[in-house]
Amino acid sequence: MKLEKHPSSSRGFANHGWLQASHSFSFANWYDPNKIQFGALRVLNDDVIAPSMGFSTHPHQNMEIITIPLSGLLKHKDNMANDWLYVKPNEVQVMSAGTGVYHSEMNGSVKDRLNLFQIWILPNKEGVTPRYNQQAFNPEERKNKQQILVSPINSELEGLKIHQDAQISRLDLDANQEFTYHVKSDNHGVYLMNISGDIIVEEETLTTRDAIGVSNTQEFKIQAHTNSELLMIEVPM
């Protein structure tokens, strides 16, 4: 088993005034040669966006883009005939950029900040027709059990679909609970972001916003010291 712990303090950080962005992997003006990607996972940004502010229309191509609001209200618009759409906490948005898409992302509130994770996963098929989807997930269905949010496009698993043999899930563990994560294959790894709380992954202790990459194993154990929220991104290595 290979474990790579990434304390929250090791992330890149950019303060743009209206945007406070923490980068798990090299992004924009922040570059760390040791943090380019984790397998097919290329970007995991933890963004806090000021009220009524956001990203104006910009392009993407050949990337699977997943957005998970944690608090606040996300407002999205794109050139796939989608006028302004709203994405709330406990909802997930997926966009397959494929041959090319233009979109805008804004804070849909005039008074509250928006906090979200944006994830980019390299696709296993390029040049696909761009597509958009979003879905609501019941938080009760991840209480001490794995809730699949995103899965491969041709799989029978639950969740939104992407063009990659990858899986994104959430898990809310009560204090003193334990969970065993089963990895799909020896060629897959899991990047675990501890959204909040205190946990132990095998022998490594993680506090809020710490992350760990787990690979070269078929399973690993997670123990919660306190009530904890976890995001798990399983990708081909």
Automatic annotation (TrEMBL):
All copies of domain Pirin N-terminal, residue ranges: 11-121
SUPFAM superfamilies given in the database record: RmlC-like cupins
The protein's name in its UniProt record: Pirin family protein
Taxonomy, superkingdom: Bacteria
Domain spans labelled Quercetin 2,3-dioxygenase C-terminal cupin: 149-235
InterPro entries hit by this protein: Pirin, Pirin_N_dom, Quercetinase_C, RmlC-like_jellyroll, RmlC_Cupin_sf
Pfam families registered for this protein in UniProt: Pirin (PF02678), Pirin_C_2 (PF17954)
Family: Belongs to the pirin family.
